[in-house]
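Subgroup meeting minutes
Present: P.N., E.W., G.H.
Scribe: E.W.

1. P.N. recapped why we're keeping a running log of single-chain structure predictions: easier to compare across weeks, and new members can see raw inputs and outputs side by side.
2. G.H. added today's entry (251 aa).
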Amino acid sequence: MPASARTIDIEGSEIHVEERGAGEPLLLLHGLTGTGADFQHVFDLDALAETHRVILPDARGHGRSSGPTDDFSFRRCAEDVVALLDALGVERACAVGVSLGAKTLLHVATAHPARLRAMVLVSAAPRFPEPTRALFRAAASLPHSPEEWAAMRAAHVHGDAQIAALWQLPRRFAEDATDMSFTPDRLAAITAQTLVVSGDRDPLYPVELAVELYRGIPRASLWVVPGGGHGPIFLTEREAFVRVALSFLST
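Output recorded in log:
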């Protein structure tokens, strides 16, 4: 089924979104330094469009979306998502979020619980322990090879300054003590049917953080992927994830 793409102005940021299909809206939110197109490596998007209205945005500052990253936060991304749903005339959706996308969904689900019927959170966390923050700081200091620059230039169209800013975002996450601070009381506000997915070898988010989400979100389910790293939904883990995620979202 052919896709349609457009750009929507959200408080001065141009958010690029691709849509295809009809049916229940399904929002797919990518990870940090990714784009909505990453989900073509997970789902058969044409098949998915036969049963869902598939919505694939690029987060602010990513891909074809513009917008300053000097005030970037997961909360800000969630506000973008709610405004995007408003602009698309979507009152309620189901969603899959990976890492950045999953943490964005936590903000949407706690601040605007009526907007999500069901969600799959892949590699999410309720908070960032100090070892995670240390890894974020280290990541922001890494040099990048010509091959990494070439791959990023192919995905992010607004120039090298955009790419450099994206690579510095982990430092911002490390220094922000409030953006990711989901207490049990906050998680208890979530009404969406929720599946928490975690790799048991995730170097950023120990599986204990997934258990915190599972225990804090009412009626949540937990899937720990054996041997899975961060974002365990690609390559050899793809088939199992698609089967489990789509079965979960259909109930």
